[in-house]
Amino acid sequence: MSTEIRKQVTNEILEALTDGLVPWQKPWLRHENDGPPTNVLTNLSFRASNLILLQKVAHRQGFRSKWWGTQRVWNAFGFQVEPHQAGSQVFYGKVQNQTVFNAEQAEGPGIERYLVREATETCHPAFEAADKIIAATKADIRHIHGDEANYYRPPEDYIVVQLKSQFLNGPGGLCGYYGTVLHELTHWTDHRLGWLAEPHLTNKERYALAEIRAQFGSAYLIAEVGIPFPDAITNHANYIGMWMKAMNADPTVIMRVASAASEAVDFILSCSRQQKQTA
Predict the structure, then answer these.
(1) Nearest-angstrom CA–CA distance, 120 and 126
(2) Spatial separation of the C-alpha atoms in residues 35 and 31, rounded to whole Å
(3) In sequence order, what are the residues at sequence separation of 6 or more whose Cβ sits closer than 8 angstroms to the Cβ of residue 174?
(4) Residue 222 neighbours by CB distance under 10 Å
């Protein structure tokens, strides 16, 4: 990705952050077609900077559908994208960009199955799937009763999380519990993947980026298993200012942190895939 493209992506994300828009703040999955921006061809959620960029467009345009695809893909599905519709740019590695359109920008018989309908049907959180993914890592997770007792202890390699019952009675409910565990599991991958949060930064700045990486990771994993992200999010807003400062100083930092989060997610998911193969 060229320096010019990196700056463009960074500016878009900085604008979104300035507006208070971050990918883990929206409570997804109120409907089967609501959720993180998702590729209609591959059925995979967009990650890294593309997640923020498309969420920003959806917020600005009022799109409720999670489905995005290129004009060629929509045409192949039997739909049309009118010439007056403005596409949105997504970026893949060395490929500079690709233009995608939301399902609400496409027309044709049957497009309704990609839209958010006003109906009573809802998606049920996939807590069982999350439990299987967590268990497959074989991480040492210790549940204790306490206030804000959620952290990963690197030297001893274990995770401490509050009791599930405490989350159940709190504002985030069980979704908050699983979001917290998946956040700490992302931290748990740090030394396993040899990841360091920008070693040239201060300890405070490195910690902030590590928290953003973990929050990206938990957001990706939550989208992967089908759990709404909890409406009540705390602590992470404290790091947004430092993140924006780092992005202003270095347009490549968002790509590195988001890419590291994707790598952590793939590592965590690989544990359950390996378990399936040996079963």
Answers:
(1) 19
(2) 8
(3) 125, 127, 164, 167, 168
(4) 26
Residue 134, both tokens:
């967590």
CA atoms within 13 A on the CB side of 147: 0
Task: Give per-residue pLDDT as tens, 153-199.
Answer: 998 999 999 998 888 877 668 888 998 999 999 999 998 998 876 67
Cβ neighbors of 234 (< 8 A, separation 6 or more) are none
Cβ(13)–Cβ(52) below 8 Å: yes
Q: Which 3 state secondary structure label does DSSP give 245?
A: helix
Is the CB of residue 164 less than 8 Å from the CB of residue 173? no
Helices (H), 189-202: 190-193
Q: Which amino acid is at 10?
A: T
State the Cα–Cα distance between residues 81 and 102, nearest whole angstrom. Answer: 10
180: tokens are 């917290």
What DSSP designation does 92 have? E
Got the DSSP string for 151-191? Answer: EEETTTTEEEEE-HHHHHTSTTHHHHHHHHHHHHHHHHTHH
Instruction: Find, among 36, 56, 31, the residue nearest to 116 by Cα.
Output: 31
Residue 35 carries which DSSP code?
S
